[in-house]
Design goal:
It is a single chain. With 454 residues, the protein is of the alpha+beta class. The protein is built from twelve helices and 20 strands. The chain has helices spanning 18-24, 49-52, 54-63, 187-190, 194-197, 221-226, 234-237, 279-285, 300-316, 325-329, 403-425, 439-452; strands at 46-47, 70-74, 83-89, 92-98, 104-108, 124-126, 130-131, 138-139, 145-147, 166-172, 175-179, 207-217, 251-255, 259-264, 331-336, 340-342, 350-356, 364-373, 387-389, 430-431. The protein has an eight-stranded mixed β-sheet with strand order 13-14-15-16-17-18-12-19. Strand 13 and strand 14 (259-264) form a beta hairpin. Helix 8 packs across helix 9 (300-316). The protein is globular and about 85 Å long. The model has no long low-confidence stretch (mean pLDDT 96).
Length: 454
């Protein structure tokens, strides 16, 4: 079809699509993996002020974050009554705690006497009660007022009116979510297609956190996650991957208001890669053991998938033969608005979270989790402690991150501080997005605008 006959949003990279590549593997795959749901959302510029403006940031803190579902911890972080974690996003702080009745609650982290936080930020542990460190007002782990020193001086305080205010709580996929809006829609409705897509072998509730790394990024929370919402940057940022990573022919989908996805393949050269390669040459450039041979009639993609099945299967004590080559190799990433990315595949089973730090639009906390599948009948192990690394440290410094993968994350995040400075110095006052490859970024901003307009 001639270019002038195509509508905006219909343009695609020449050559095989992600769906074509996955089906060519000749294996059964989950129906969700080969479902396509592209959406053209316009082509106007996105103003840079949305990233660095204090006024825009303050509006998000007032009309977005207190009104949206967001994950705060894993269920296994608070298995026993009295166990808690604190959660911060911008100026908002909550205590997520399991009660003696086995119910998970989320309390606003402020004493009802004079406002002192009951628990420090980034705190976790166990307590028999919630006691203010300033004057000693005390609540039960179910949020009921227990005692007030000099109770005689507060005849105007009625116990039933001074229970700790709570946010709404929901669970899915082994994660605990909260919403500070008492009128919020049920979490089940907010999740859209996720419960349908992420089940069976993709069920995140049957996975355990193996690694948890936190890093502060010198950029806005939106820009930080946008670096992971498209594969367009692979051509320049991760050029070492072009011999074996499909980037320009990645697939992008939008599923309703809150969910989007990309799928891009591995073991297949980028459409940008100019040189013809044998399957053996492709395999030699992948992260496979030295001396890996691609037999005649096989592909580098299938050999790499087999190696990962064996390697990870031995590591985890599991039979991974039921997973397709695509699930073993490809980057399959779902985004749940506003700040959560999930990879339900096997070889890179990651979850991301991007949160504003304090009241500065240019500071973001990036949580990076690696989840491993649980064996049949295996209970969740004790949760791992998050490892915090400085903004100028390499991800490879964190225990459990392989050097090649740490270097890849460094490439991703090293761009962000330069981009954030560019937002403010650019004479052109907005970013120009690709209609297809960057459609998930535009989708993010459109949903934000919907909240801000309410």
């Amino acid at each position: 079809m001639a270019d002038f006959d195509m509508k905006p949003g219909d343009h695609r990279c020449p050559g095989p699509s992600t769906r074509d590549i996955i089906l060519a593997d000749g294996q059964p795959v989950p129906e969700a993996l080969v479902t396509e749901s592209p959406l053209f959302l316009g082509d106007g510029d996105i103003p840079y002020e949305r990233y660095y403006s204090q006024d825009f940031f303050d509006l998000e803190m007032k009309k977005l974050w207190p009104k949206v579902w967001q994950w705060v911890c894993r269920v296994e972080d608070i298995r026993e009554s009295g166990e808690y974690v604190t959660y911060e996003v911008g100026p908002h702080s909550l205590i997520i705690m399991r009660g003696d009745d086995d119910t998970i609650r989320a309390f606003h982290n402020a004493c009802l006497h004079r406002g002192t936080q009951l628990r420090q930020p980034n705190d976790a542990g166990w307590t028999p009660e919630l006691r203010c460190p300033y004057h000693g007002w005390t609540w039960s782990i179910e949020g009921d007022l227990k005692s007030i020193p000099c109770r005689w001086d507060f005849p105007h305080v009625k116990d039933e009116s001074f229970n700790l205010p709570q946010a709404k709580v929901g669970t899915w996929g082994g994660f605990v979510f909260i919403n500070m809006d008492e009128n919020a829609e049920p979490l089940e409705d907010f999740l859209g297609v996720l419960p349908e897509h992420l089940r069976d072998g993709w069920d995140l509730g049957r996975r355990a956190v193996a690694v948890h790394v936190q890093k502060e990024l010198n950029t806005n929370w939106k820009a930080a996650q946008e670096a992971f919402l498209e594969a367009y940057h692979v051509f320049e940022t991760h050029s070492q991957n072009l011999p074996f990573a499909g980037d320009a022919n990645a697939q992008y989908d939008v599923f309703g208001d809150n969910v989007s996805r990309f799928v891009h393949t591995h073991g297949i050269p980028s459409p940008h890669y100019p040189q013809a390669q044998t399957e053996q040459e492709i395999a030699d450039k992948m992260h496979l053991p030295a001396g890996t041979i691609v037999p005649e009639g096989r592909t580098a993609r299938s050999v790499a998938a087999d190696w990962r099945r064996e390697n990870l299967g031995n590591k985890w004590g599991m039979d991974l033969s039921a997973f397709s080559d695509s699930e073993m190799l490809d980057s399959i990433e779902y985004h749940l608005f506003p700040n959560m990315c999930m990879f339900p595949g096997v070889s890179l089973p990651m979850v991301y979270r991007f949160r504003p730090i304090g009241n500065d639009p240019g500071r973001t906390l990036f949580d990076l989790l690696f989840l491993r599948p649980l064996r049949d009948g295996e209970e969740h192990p004790d949760p791992v402690e998050p490892v915090r690394i400085a903004h100028d440290q390499s991800y490879a410094d964190a225990p459990g991150i392989e050097p090649w993968l740490g270097a890849t994350f460094d490439q991703d995040t090293d761009n962000l501080a330069r981009q954030y400075r560019g937002f403010q110095s650019s004479k052109k006052r907005g970013e120009t997005l690709g209609n297809y490859q960057e459609s998930r970024i535009r989708h993010l901003h459109m949903v934000i605008d919907d909240y801000l307009a309410r």
